[in-house]
Amino acid sequence: MFSTVLISAPTFAQDADDREIIPVISDGQPNPAITVTGNGIGTAVGNTGQSVTIIDRDEIDAIQGADATRVLQRTPGMSLTRNGGIGGFSGVSLRGANSEQLLVLVDGVRVADPASPSGGFDFGNLLLGTAGKFDIQRGSNSTIWGSDAIGGVVDVTTRGTSGFAGNFEYGSRDTLFASAAGGLSDDRYYVGLTGSWFRTDGFSAAASGSERDGFEQVALGGSLFYDVTPGLEVFAHANWSEGKLDIDGFPPPDYALADTLETQETRRHWGDVGFTWSTNDLTLRGAYSLADTERDNFDDAGAESFASDGHSERVQLRGEYRAIGPVTVSFGAEQEWTDFVTSFDTAAKTSIFGAYAQIGVEMGRFAAHVGSRIDDHELFGTNGSYGADLSYGFGEDWRVKASLGEGFKAPTLFQLLSFYGNADLQPEESTSFDLGVEKGERGRGTHLALTGFRRDSKDLIGFAFSTARPFGFYDNTARARAQGIEAEAGFDLAEGLRLSGVYSFVDTEDRISGNDLARRPQHFGTIFADYQAPFGLKLGADLRIVGKSYDDAGNFTRLGGYEVLDLRAAMPVSEAFEVYGRVENVFDTDYQTASGYASTPRGVFAGVRAKL
User: Does pTM surpass 0.85?
Assistant: First the structure.
């Protein structure tokens, strides 16, 4: 079975990378892409009205390298910022939401750092060596996922394979990247291990600097699935990483971003243990999970300047009951405990409980779901949310889809209880809807999609000052709106040649000041092409195009638009080995996604990949 999700179907097949049960289509058509972000259990993308993008391991390998942002930029509605090179803080915005308003999961485990001021996830610490799949849902979806799901949800599956797969590459700035994955399986079990090592001398994070800022990380991951009985499976995931990053700071006398010898060390571990139990009518999945992030910053002299530790534990149960005919009932409940401590703040903790129910109807090419959720936070009290989605297929392979949902983000422990905290904070809240039409499926044949969306947010947490608190404090001060259009297209132009692209128009507004939201370009997109010759040679290109934006809430500092082109190639030399290479930023474009921070210059990389 090897399953974290179940889908009703006459027969099933196992995907080693996803470790999901997926339906086999009897007419020989490809298996549909499966998402868990839409409903929390698992369904074909075509059976949900949510906007979902799936990027699997084959596409990750084709793009090459360790940098997750080069993969994520193929997602509609997703814009990216980074402080310097790979390993530097990397924020992801979905449909104009703050990077902290994105729920990030790895194997279903929440991995955001509770000790960070706004509780967001730093994608600079997520490298591709241990990633098997990205499941990305766009739009507010707290009905299923609870806190943080304002902009959307990203679920990363740990890489898994039967047999062995690995790669080694070397390139510019003395960059080394190696990764490997292996697994054993039979009819009743799967056990897999994966790991990666990355190091680079880097370049100056400060655009005005010249001192190199390097990065090094080691990461390990593992998965276990075992069928105790035909209807009962137990599973476990474990991940660990440790990295060291050179950073630039704001030294005296100017206190402007410049070269320094400061460093940051980050240690993370997370995982879960649980079970999946299924009968003809009922599927249950229960799990206990934990996540921990420790950070230590050191000054130019090597003395510790700041340290933090954020920890979370969660117990959850999710289920799906096939009530009668096409009607299903999905449900779940979870309890989470979080705590943090920093060099300047005493240890603090809190908890939140949530429960939801969703009714679905799926008949042929029609699917609809509606649900609601209640959450009770130890400090701010109760919050309710609702959501609904609809998908209807027509013609040969067209469908219309729509979703409506609410999102909320609980104040972080830092915002509530630190020196700058405010125990009276309320959660940030949002309401979003989208409506779209789609032909085909991403990555296959002719694919076209057009989606319009809007999200209104209130009680956004900002920084305020008062006579009683002259150094400032967090408060619910802001409202915002984001609306726009996402377009996708993909075509097989000739045998072995595919051209694809995504474009997003995202109009954001601070509803108090009327300004654009900081670091949210209105126009951005990616065009990517892949060609495979009859004798095995693979060629590819990715062109990222981003329009202008502002770096600050006051709209005083302008960030220029840019275009970045990557070229890549790969050639099998035997059934087991392939050589590959790429040129990143071919024209050495000089650009910034955060004012004062440099972005990756031109780089050349080559490697070898094995699969046994």
Answer: yes
**DSSP secondary structure code for residue 325 in this structure:** T
Q: Determine the residue type at 556.
A: F
CB neighbour class for 273 (10 Å; exposed up to 12, middle 13-18, buried from 19): middle
Question: What whole-number distance in Å separates Cα of residue 46 and Cα of residue 399?
Answer: 8
Helix (H, G, I), strand (E, B), or coil: what is residue 24?
coil
Q: How far is CA 200 from CA 64, 167, 170, 174, 243, in A?
A: 16, 17, 10, 6, 12
pLDDT, tens digit, 9 for 90 and up, residues 15-59: 444 444 333 333 444 566 888 887 788 888 888 999 999 999 999
pLDDT of 3 above 50: no
The SS3 call for residue 124 is helix
pLDDT digits (tens, 9 = 90+) for 430-477: 999 999 999 999 999 999 999 999 999 999 998 888 888 988 999 998
- What pLDDT score does 12 carry? 28
Q: Measuring CA to CA, which residue among 332, 413, 417, 357 is closest to residue 114?
A: 413
Specify whether the CB–CB gap between 266 and 295 falls below 8 A. yes
Main-chain dihedrals φ then ψ at residue 328, nearest 5 degrees: -125, 155
DSSP letter at 74? T
Return the amino acid letter for 42.
G
pLDDT at 4: 36
**Cα–Cα dist 76/607, whole Å:** 29
Amino acid letter, 608: V
What stretches of 57-97 adopt beta strand conformation (E)?
78-82, 90-94
The C-alpha atoms of residue 590 and residue 592 are separated, in whole angstroms, by 7
Cα 129 from chain centre: 15
Q: Which two tokens stand for residue 120?
A: 């967001």
Q: DSSP string covering 404-430, please?
A: EEEEEEPPPHHHHHSTT--TT---EEE
Identify which of 241, 239, 257 has the alpha carbon closest to the alpha carbon of residue 249.
257
Contacts of 569 (CB under 8 A, 6+ apart): 537, 538, 539, 540, 580, 581, 582
98: pLDDT confidence band, cut at 50, 70 and 90?
Answer: very high
Contacts 24+ apart (CB under 8 A), 54-57: 54/133, 54/134, 54/135, 54/136, 54/442, 55/133, 55/134, 55/136, 56/17, 56/18, 56/132, 56/133, 57/17, 57/131, 57/132, 57/133, 57/159
- Residue-wise DSSP of 200-224: EEEE-SBTT--S-EEEEEEEEEEEE
DSSP string, 537-604: -EEEEEEEEE--EESSTTS-SEE--EEEEEEEEEEESSSSEEEEEEEESTT-----SSTTB-----EE
Is residue 325 left, alpha or beta, with left meaning phi > 0 and alpha meaning psi from -120 to 50? left
How many Cβ atoms from other residues are within 10 Å of residue 230's Cβ? 9
Secondary structure of residue 502 in the 3-state scheme: strand
What lies within 8 Å, CB to CB, of 468 at 6+ separation is none
Omega of the bond leading into 253 within 30 degrees of 0 (cis)? yes
